[in-house]
């Protein structure tokens, strides 16, 4: 019986693992891969304490940090996916895709999310060659350039607000005739003279020559096709949380994110906490995920020692 089971190898999971070791909690750490969503980023510039690091190197740093301090406290199982979490006598049973099962008094869900991919010709070919899914990671690389955002929700407008600080211009392509973002945010962002939004725009193709050079879209009102010359394309068409394996045990919101108490990261089930992009946290960033996981570990430690 472990004190804690941590599921996920991104910033949230690793931060939790390091703190679990420091607090000498007997922990099983389960991850399919290391690094989280930023592993695909060419240059992460906002991981605090590290001015610039590739996503691949960040993943290596996270793994090394946990392995360095795991000691006899944290047993690491990598290349493994959790398939279910069930209540069991004295705690919970976590079953993996390898057929193993682990018993634990508490669980921290840190399995993150993945970006909904743009599915048009050229999108896969130019992924991380001008087309990106992480403005906070890659935005500064497009200083002084014309860029496009695909999407019209809060994430899209938050991305626009970031990019307007250093890009030459930002054009938003939104497939619907209504933005999904908060009206106040929409009004504020669209007031910037460098910002333009095009509604009823269906993205058709990404063009390039080694790197992105243009995007093709159709005006659904007129059926006319247009080509925009841009250096960067930021895709914000939604996150898909990795929560299918826990949907039958904890409360999820309408987007299948784990509902948590923001003060403690506790879920609807006593003994289960969650942190990072798999939760209904308002903002999704590496640093926030790590901080939320540390917060959860403090609460988990108190929970275990209050028995």
Structure overview:
The chain is an alpha/beta fold and 307 residues long. The chain has two domains: 180 residues, FAD/NAD(P)-binding domain; 119 residues, FAD/NAD(P)-binding domain (3-Layer(bba) Sandwich). The chain contains six helices and 17 strands. Strands 1, 2, 3, 4, 5, 6 and 17 form a seven-stranded mixed sheet that branches. Strand 1, helix 1 and strand 2 form a beta-alpha-beta unit. Helix 1 packs parallel to helix 2 and helix 1 packs parallel to helix 6. It starts with a strand and ends with a helix.
Question: What key phrases describe this protein's structure?
Answer:
23% helix, 307 residues, FAD/NAD(P)-binding domain, 2 domains, single chain, 5-stranded parallel beta sheet, 29% strand, alpha/beta
How many β strands by DSSP? 17
Do you know the CATH topology of the largest domain?
FAD/NAD(P)-binding domain
The structural class is: alpha/beta
Quickly count the domains: 2
Question: Roughly what fraction of the amino acids lie in strands?
Answer: 25-35%
Distance between the termini: 16 Å
CATH architecture of the largest domain: 3-Layer(bba) Sandwich
Most strands sheet: 7 strands, mixed
Mean pLDDT, nearest integer? 95
Q: Secondary-structure element sequence?
A: EHEHEEEEEEHEHEHEEEEEEEH
The backbone outline, from C-alpha atoms, is elongated
Percent of residues in helices: 10-25%
Any chance you could write out the topology, listing elements then pairs?
Layout: E1 2-7, H1 11-22, E2 27-31, H2 55-70, E3 74-78, E4 82-88, E5 91-96, E6 101-109, E7 113-115, E8 131-132, H3 135-138, E9 146-150, H4 154-163, E10 169-173, H5 183-190, E11 195-198, E12 201-209, E13 211-219, E14 225-229, E15 232-235, E16 239-241, E17 272-274, H6 286-305
Parallel strand pairs: 1-2, 1-6, 2-3, 6-17, 8-15, 9-10, 9-15, 10-11
Antiparallel strand pairs: 4-5, 5-6, 7-16, 12-13, 13-14
Helix pairs in contact: 1-2, 1-6
């Amino acid at each position: 019986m472990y004190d804690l089971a941590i599921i996920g190898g991104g910033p949230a999971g690793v931060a939790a693992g390091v703190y679990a070791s420091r607090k000498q909690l007997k922990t099983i750490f389960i991850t399919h891969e290391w690094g989280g969503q930023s592993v695909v980023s060419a240059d992460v510039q906002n991981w605090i304490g590290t001015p610039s690091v590739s996503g691949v190197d960040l993943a290596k740093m996270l793994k090394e940090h946990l392995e360095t301090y795991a000691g006899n406290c944290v047993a690491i199982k990598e290349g493994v996916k959790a398939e279910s979490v069930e209540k069991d006598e004295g705690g919970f049973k976590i079953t993996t895709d390898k057929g193993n099962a682990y018993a634990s008094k508490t669980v921290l869900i840190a399995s993150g999310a993945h970006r909904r991919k743009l599915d048009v010709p050229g999108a896969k070919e130019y992924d991380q060659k001008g087309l990106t899914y992480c403005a906070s990671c890659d935005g500064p690389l497009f200083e002084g350039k014309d860029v496009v955002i695909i999407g019209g929700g809060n994430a899209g407008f938050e991305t626009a607000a970031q990019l307007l600080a250093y890009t030459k211009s930002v054009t938003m392509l939104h497939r619907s005739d209504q933005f999904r973002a908060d009206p106040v945010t929409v009004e504020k962002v669209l007031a910037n003279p460098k910002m333009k939004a095009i509604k009823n725009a269906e993205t058709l193709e990404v063009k390039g020559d080694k790197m992105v050079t243009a995007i093709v879209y159709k005006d659904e009102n007129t059926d006319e096709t247009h080509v925009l010359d841009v250096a960067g394309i930021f895709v914000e068409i939604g996150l898909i949380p990795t929560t299918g394996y826990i949907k039958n045990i904890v409360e999820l919101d309408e987007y299948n994110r784990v509902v948590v108490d923001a003060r403690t990261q506790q879920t609807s089930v006593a003994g289960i906490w969650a942190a990072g992009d798999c939760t209904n946290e308002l903002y999704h960033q590496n640093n926030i995920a790590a901080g939320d996981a540390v917060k959860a570990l403090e609460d988990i430690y108190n929970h275990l020692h209050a028995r």
